Hints:
By secondary structure, this protein is of the alpha+beta class. It has a single domain (39-149), classed as Lipocalin, CATH 2.40.128. It has two helices and eight strands.
Amino acid sequence: xxxxxxxxxxxxxxxxxxxxxxxxxxxxxxxxxxxxxxxxxxxxxxxxxxxxxxxxxxxxxxxxxxxxxxxxxxxxxxxxxxxxxxxxxxxxxxxxxxxxxxxxxxxxxxxxxxxxxxxxxxxxxxxxxxxxxxxxxxxxxxxxxxxxxx
Length: 150
C-alpha cells in the first residue's frame, strides 16, 4: 500500500515536471530557422508600410511579398511606392539584406536596399525613385520606409 502511494506521488511529480518543461519552452519567441525556409520565403505575406519622402511626406499603405517563381532568392513586392496592387518590383534577398536593382515600374525608375530584422518582421528601406516619361525625366528623390509584417 505504501509503495502504491509513493508510486502515484512519483508519477504526479514527473507529470508536473514534464508539464512545466513543455509550457516554459513554448512561451519563448524563437527566431526563424533559416535552414528550413529561404530568407525570401520568410518575407511572404502582407506588410504595412510607413514611407517618407520630400514630395509626398509620410504615406501609409500595404504591400504584398511573393517569392519569384524563377528564383527562390528573389521576391516580387506588389504595390511598392504605392504604385498599385497590380504592379511590382523584383528584389533579391541575401540573408538580412534586400536589394532592388534599377528597374522601371509604372513610369518610375526605382533602385534601393533594405535591412531585414533578425526575426524577419521589419525591413528598413532606403530607395531612390525617379519619375520618367517618354518626353523627359523628372528629379529623383530619396525615400525611406519601414515595412512591418502583418
